[in-house]
User: Fold this.
Amino acid sequence: MDANELLEHFTEVLEVRLPRPDWHCYRVTLSTDRPSYPLLSARFTTQCLLIAGQPDRRWKRQDSYLNGLGLRVYCCRVRAPPVDQQGGRQDPKANPFEPLELIRRRPLGKTRSACVEFIMEPYALYMVSVDSQYRCPRCVLRFACGGEVQFRELSAPEAGHFLAAQAGAAQSCGDLSALSARTVSDASIYSESLGEEGCNVREAAAERCGL
Assistant:
């Protein structure tokens, strides 16, 4: 029996991605009204699996999903300042997430979950944004990482800088549609904080990376 003939005997086919048992797992709960922008960094090259899931359509007895989910992963590489500028005063008006690069994107899809995989490199900050076609009352964002990572949610000032930097982000994985700004929310996360002020993000990351 070939694969096509076998699939005809099923009404639903689910694709499952199971990370290894020794991977580090994190979770954030968010919604359209209370979005979340997680930030990740790693000291060593690490594989990361990212999954965003919405409520099962069967709870509302729907034949299909009406709302589409998508994912975007951005990268901001940490660079040491020039020798003649080390120890100098930072510009408080400068955006700490520039230059920003879009490294992974999952377009909107009317499915239970959206998934992307990417490789985290040292000396870089990674930010995640969930796209929802319509209002989503609850979305669970799960991370599984092959190594130890620093993980937290952006604070309100940092989220403002992140949203502003998206307009000029280098797009290495296709064109983006217009993005709407959203406010930041609380999230259940398991990591130590890098600091709360937006202008100190890159400085804190550089200190962690030994720059």
Q: What stands out?
A: The domain at 23-82+91-208 is CATH 2.60.120.380 (Jelly Rolls). The first helix runs from residue 3 to 7. Residues 174-211 have pLDDT under 50 and may be disordered. Helices lie at 3-7, 156-166, 201-208.
